[in-house]
Task: structure prediction
Amino acid sequence: GAGVSQTPSNKVTEKGKYVELRCDPISGHTALYWYRQSLGQGPEFLIYFQGTGAADDSGLPNDRFFAVRPEGSVSTLKIQRTERGDSAVYLCASSENSGTSGYEQYFGPGTRLTVT
Amino acid sequence: AQSVAQPEDQVNVAEGNPLTVKCTYSVSGNPYLFWYVQYPNRGLQFLLKYITGDNLVKGSYGFEAEFNKSQTSFHLKKPSALVSDSALYFCAVRDLNTGGFKTIFGAGTRLFVKA
Result:
C-alpha cells in the first residue's frame, strides 16, 4: 500500500514568510508525528497527534509553529514569520499505536525547508 | 527526561565481519526501544523494536539487538556485515511511564562497510 507522503519535497522561502508543509499518513494510522532533522542530527520531536487532537506538542520550539489534523488524517505543519534557523528537513511519520502493533513509525521522505 | 546516546559518530567494519552499533538510553520508567536506518536519499525505515519479553530481538536484513536493562543499553548487531548495510542508523526510545508517545532519537551513527 501507499506509504507516508509529504509535500512539497522542497520549499525555499524568504525570511519572514509563512509556510505550510503537508503530510498524508498511511491509511488507517491514527497516530501522526512531526519531527525536524538538521544536518548531522537525529530527528527532533515536534508534535504528536492521536486522531484529530494534538496529544503532545511539547516539542514545538515556539508559537510560530503550529500543526493541525482536522479530520484525523492529513496534517499540516504551519510556520509563521520564518527564520533562517528554521531551515531543516521536516519529517512526518505515522503509526498504528495499538496494543498489538508495537508503535513503530513509518516515515515520509521529508520536506526540505530553506529559509533565505 | 528521556534521552538517547549513540557514542560513536561512525563505525567502520570490513564486509563479512560482525558489526555493533551502540546505544544507551535514559528513561524514568520502562522503555520502548527502536532502531531505524536511513539510506542515502531515502526516508527513515524501521529495523526492529523491543517492547517486552525476550531481551534479544531480531529485525529486518539480519539485524538484531539486545536489551540490557542493568546497563540501559540497546546495541544493534549483525553477525556478518554487507557493503549494502552502509547507512545512517538511529536509536530511539519512548518512556511508557510518561503515558505519552513522545519518541526521542539519538544523533545517529554512520556505518561504513568496506568491501
Remarks:
- Chain B touches chain A at residues 4, 32, 34, 36, 42-46, 49, 51, 90, 92, 94, 100-108 (CB under 8 Å).
- The radius of gyration of chain B is 14 Å.
- The mean pLDDT of chain B is 92.
- Residues 38 and 54 of chain B are 26 Å apart (CA to CA).
